[in-house]
Automatic annotation (TrEMBL):
Ranges where the record places region Disordered: 1-27
Lineage: Bacteria, Bacillati, Actinomycetota, Actinomycetes, Pseudonocardiales
Protein name in the entry: Glyoxalase
Ranges annotated as biased composition (Basic residues): 7-26
Domain spans labelled VOC: 37-153
Species of provenance: Amycolatopsis balhimycina DSM 5908
Signal sequence residues: none
Length: 181
């Protein structure tokens, strides 16, 4: 655990006999809001190595760790942003669960158009392009049919974005996006 600040180690217990935590009654309606600083996504896929190669090629992710049944990938900063886990044989894509995972890009709609051209030139299945009033979304699928969205915000102020999204009831209109090559 070298390198981990002391405070972060407190309360950890590796392998020692697990005791059931004592109940401390919280006041009713107490909310402890997690302060989320980053998210990561973990997906079941048919073949983690095949998918990892696709993620590296299409989204530029780099492999940071791998095990017999998984590959961890990073966009470049964090130890992992996406984990690909071997699904059971014959597993099918279901109707419940993840609908899509959105990735807000740095840049504007022209940067999104360049990414659109890149996806098309790699033969990636692009599902739709959508105007959300606060940004433009470009939806596509990985080799197992997991849907992703690359989106470029056109309203860059978050307070204004929340206001517009609420006022227009989370709009989702098809939009023609011209790919740039
Ligand atoms: Fe989205």
């Amino acid at each position: 655990m070298a390198g981990i600040p002391r405070d972060h180690r407190r309360g950890l217990d590796h392998g020692r006999r697990r005791r059931r935590p004592r109940r401390h009654p919280l006041k009713e309606h107490t909310v402890i809001k997690p302060v989320v600083v980053r998210t990561h996504l973990s997906l079941f896929v048919r073949d983690p190595e095949t998918s990892a190669a696709w993620y590296a090629d299409v989204l530029g992710l780099e492999v940071t760790a791998r095990g017999p049944q998984w590959v961890f990938l990073s966009f470049g900063r964090k130890h992992h942003d996406i984990a690909l886990i071997q699904a059971e044989d014959g597993a099918a894509h279901g109707g419940l669960g993840l609908q899509h995972y959105g990735l807000e890009i740095q840049g504007d709609v022209d940067d999104l158009r360049r990414l659109y051209g890149m996806l098309l030139s790699k033969g990636v299945k692009v599902v739709k392009t959508t105007d959300h009033k606060v940004g433009i979304g470009l939806y596509f699928e990985d080799p197992d049919g997991n849907r992703f969205e690359l989106f470029a915000e056109t309203v860059t102020d978050d307070d204004e974005g929340r206001r517009i999204l609420g006022e227009h009831n989370a709009p989702s209109e098809p939009v023609e996006l011209e790919p740039l090559y």
